[in-house]
Write a structure and sequence with these properties.
Elements (H helix, E strand, L loop, with lengths): L2 E4 L5 E4 L2 H6 L2 E2 L10 E4 L2 E17 L3 E10 L5 E8 L6 E7 L4 E7 L12 E3 L8 E8 L2 E6 L3 E6 L7 E20 L1
Antiparallel strand pairs: 1-2, 3-14, 4-5, 5-14, 6-11, 6-14, 7-8, 7-14, 8-9, 9-10, 11-12, 12-13
Length: 186
């Protein structure tokens, strides 16, 4: 269920209903694993990977949870975001990716079947500007997954193939800061 809001220009935006957001109030402890290009911040983590890919898995992801993050990326960053259900060997995961050059929010899966660049149809337009933070809220309940970006855009999907794993952050060809990180259960 989404809450629709009318903007000043008459367009509609989408946000998570307060009752749903508030239902996930039990914070879970987590710790990011170190890695190349990772820098711990006072309230988060930064990943730097010019011309490469960097990621840092965190804690175990429950079947039902909310993950929150404020993401700020540098100019010329190709992609960044959160990983869901990451395998221990980092060979498989779902990726909630911000793509600044295309101004879109995308669900991606790795490994992909065939030569598909991402999960076709699971993307939403969003204006992304370097240096301007994006607040992400991700709700997972079994196979159902809903992503909210800046309480303006919502993306619904299903997570059928990868059943369990960790969560974490990533950047592709660029630099991104991840702050205000929380993982909560009911």
């Amino acid at each position: 269920m989404h809450e629709l809001l009318q903007e000043a220009d008459g367009s509609l935006s989408v946000k998570v209903p307060d009752t749903v957001n508030d239902a996930f109030s039990k914070n879970l402890a987590y710790q990011f694993q170190g890695g190349i290009g990772m820098k711990a911040l006072q309230e988060g983590v930064q990943l730097d990977a010019p011309g490469a890919f960097a990621c840092s898995p965190a804690g175990i992801m429950p079947d039902r949870c909310k993950i929150e993050a404020t993401v700020t990326f540098a100019r010329n960053t190709h992609g960044c975001g959160l990983m869901l259900r990451v395998s221990e060997d980092l060979d498989s995961a779902y990726y909630i990716r911000l793509e600044p050059a295309q101004n879109r929010l995308v669900l991606d899966t790795w490994p992909r079947s065939g030569d598909i660049p991402f999960s076709v149809g699971v993307e939403r337009p969003i204006i992304l500007l370097s240096g301007k933070s994006v607040d992400l809220k991700i709700f997972v309940d079994g196979t159902a997954c809903v992503v909210y970006a800046d309480n303006r855009v919502a993306m619904n999907t299903r997570l059928y193939e990868i059943k369990r794993g960790r969560w974490g952050v990533f950047v592709k060809e660029g630099s991104a800061k991840f702050q205000n990180l929380r993982i909560c259960t009911r």
